[in-house]
Design the sequence.
């Protein structure tokens, strides 16, 4: 695991830390971690354990991202780390998204190497996907800074269960964002994801206002979020 001091936190009472990344705002004592399982209080400092440590890396079609209107027909280097701040009952990447970094087979791929290898392969973009990129926001931002100078695009596929400040900072350094709008009722979000719709809708507005390329994805779970009237309301 990595040992890099995280962004978006503040000191709490004594040696406690308070995470400011998502609405959970986990209050964490020394030796403990937040809900996502990849950010830890070490001696009063908040550390990210997944910086430069993806659990999966592969070259995928852009449309699998799923981005349909950004560099269509190209391949992208798709990667994801352990950890997520939601708990979706139908998670497709549960083996690492709902795992701690000690439980996954992580690669060592810091931002500089990631961008260099992407360039060497002649692939025009990097997509943070599979799990929740917000949990490795430092990795995303640093990759974005290096990639911009190298002419490589950086994309993020996120559930957008995040606070506005971190989202705005991330959007400065990425070229496109795809938000999983998982459903359109608070009941679905609460029962199936452990999050809430209100936060995600506000996050979509925040991202849109930054001017970054934005796409939305709605994954249909039959019997749970496939009501036609709800679809119409969402559209």
Sequence:
């Amino acid at each position: 695991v990595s040992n890099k001091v995280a962004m978006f936190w503040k000191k709490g009472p004594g040696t406690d830390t308070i995470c400011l990344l998502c609405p959970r705002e986990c209050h964490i004592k020394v030796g403990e971690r937040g809900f996502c399982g990849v950010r830890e209080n070490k001696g009063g400092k908040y550390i990210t354990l997944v910086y430069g440590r993806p659990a999966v890396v592969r070259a995928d079609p852009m449309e699998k991202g799923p981005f349909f209107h950004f560099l269509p027909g190209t391949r992208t280097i798709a990667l994801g780390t352990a950890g997520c701040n939601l708990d979706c009952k139908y998670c497709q990447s549960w083996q690492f998204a709902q795992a701690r970094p000690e439980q996954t087979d992580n690669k060592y791929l810091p931002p500089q190497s990631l961008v260099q290898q992407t360039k060497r392969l002649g692939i025009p973009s990097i997509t943070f996907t599979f799990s929740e990129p917000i949990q490795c926001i430092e990795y995303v931002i640093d990759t974005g800074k290096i990639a911009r100078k190298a002419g490589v695009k950086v994309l993020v596929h996120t559930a957008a269960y995040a606070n506005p400040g971190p989202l705005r900072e991330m959007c400065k350094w990425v070229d496109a964002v795809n938000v999983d709008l998982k459903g359109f009722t608070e009941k679905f979000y609460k029962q199936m994801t452990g999050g809430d719709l209100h936060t995600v809708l506000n996050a979509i507005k925040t991202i849109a206002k930054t001017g970054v390329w934005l796409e939305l994805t709605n994954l249909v779970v039959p019997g749970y979020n496939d009501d036609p009237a709800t679809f119409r309301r969402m559209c």
